[in-house]
Amino acid sequence: MTHFSRTPVRGALLSVFLLVSTTVASFAQLGIGRPVGNKMVDAIIVKLDNQIVLKSDLDASYAQEEARAEGKPLPLDLRCRLLQGIVMGKLMLAKAETDSVTVTDDQVNGELNRRMAYFVQQIGSEKKLEEFYNKPLKQLKEDLRSQVKDQLVQQKMQETIAGKVTVTPREVRQYFSRIPKDSLPYFSTEVEVGQIVKLAQVNQSAKQATIAKLNDLRARIQAGESFETLAKQFSQDPGSAAEGGYIGFFTRKDLAPEYSAAALRLEPGQMSPIVESQFGFHLIQLIERKGESFSTRHILIKPETGSKDVNESATQLTKLRSRILADSITFAKAAKDISDDKPSGASGGLLTNRQDGSTYLPLDKLDPAIFFTIDTMKVGHITPPLPYRTDDGKDAMRIIWLKSNTPPHQANLKDDYQKISQAALNEKKNKALDEWFKQNRGSVFIEVDPQYTDCKVLAPTTL
């Protein structure tokens, strides 16, 4: 999608800390460097109070902009602009520490899980992601934890500084009028697509078969076999199976409530009865407690769904589709009330653009399964139930709605008010951030590597 901002740093100041690229080539954003030989090649290029900027931080940001540019030439001073943005982030961290701005462990864990799920989806599987980095998934999360925490704190500081900034319709029109006619972006075809997902509900016979299998494993462990060995052999949790079922330390709130409740009833070394959660059935062993945290290992087995279970989901969606077409319920309300996909359900079923948060999706960036589904659809049409497999491997059915289809066009206020309004808002928020930066840049000690002194990293970021 074409952006109104003509300077990469400008958009980055508001959202760089949580942006995720759609290319495997930009996995540097994970914050985990791939090794060169047996050593990591890195260096500190900026020190700001107790914060540092590594060369790898700057290289990762530059690689992200290269991926977005898709082969187009980048500004010669891009590295300096990016470094300015990173230094602003470090200044926010320093001020957040003095102003007691913090985030919770739950927020960090939630963001870690979201990122990992996204990257797993992009690369194809957890196994491929682990092979790419030669590390288990839980280690990737731990390597990324401190960076994600910093990014969430930076985001919270940005919200404190510019979160209350708004724009009026007049300011949106004024913003648009300042864009030279020959610089107006040209938008490719964009669509708004909604979905309602119903997971296949596991039948009782499949559940009982799973429980029987886990009870057999439990008996074998009680008879002397190794929990870890059996976890490696039978557990269907790819993130922990290779580690003998070990998932590390978590608090009660970090895990499924059924899992936490069962684990906390155990003494170290004890094994639980069979526990059911949204992920399947678990056999849990408590390893250790440290204050509010505890470590466990588990064996997870997921009951298999059959064609009958999937057909029941299809029947539910067929009836729901008839109600929507008969105007007895709107697609948006049905998605919020009934869809098993909570992220899209919260937005009335509409899929959102990861780049700008809008509901407008460039046609050439769509998931192929959706692209080929809507390719011949008319606006307003809702498909019959279609087979679907969720990101975490669950069988489901879904119906897809084509809400709108906007042909290629040059930006204008009538068709693109939402985008123009967001761009105007970003500009106004950036001015608020610039003002904050000017007021606070003198409150920190900074040391810059001589190679980067020409970047003037504490200069105003007005571009």
UniProtKB/TrEMBL annotation:
<dbReference type="InterPro" id="IPR000297">
    <property type="entry name" value="PPIase_PpiC"/>
</dbReference>
<dbReference type="Pfam" id="PF00639">
    <property type="entry name" value="Rotamase"/>
</dbReference>
<dbReference type="InterPro" id="IPR023058">
    <property type="entry name" value="PPIase_PpiC_CS"/>
</dbReference>
<dbReference type="InterPro" id="IPR027304">
    <property type="entry name" value="Trigger_fact/SurA_dom_sf"/>
</dbReference>
<keyword id="KW-0697">Rotamase</keyword>
<dbReference type="GO" id="GO:0003755">
    <property type="term" value="F:peptidyl-prolyl cis-trans isomerase activity"/>
</dbReference>
<feature type="domain" description="PpiC">
    <location>
        <begin position="188"/>
        <end position="288"/>
    </location>
</feature>
<dbReference type="InterPro" id="IPR050280">
    <property type="entry name" value="OMP_Chaperone_SurA"/>
</dbReference>
<keyword id="KW-0732">Signal</keyword>
<protein>
    <submittedName>
        <fullName>Peptidylprolyl isomerase</fullName>
    </submittedName>
</protein>
<dbReference type="InterPro" id="IPR046357">
    <property type="entry name" value="PPIase_dom_sf"/>
</dbReference>
<feature type="domain" description="PpiC">
    <location>
        <begin position="291"/>
        <end position="401"/>
    </location>
</feature>
<keyword id="KW-0413">Isomerase</keyword>
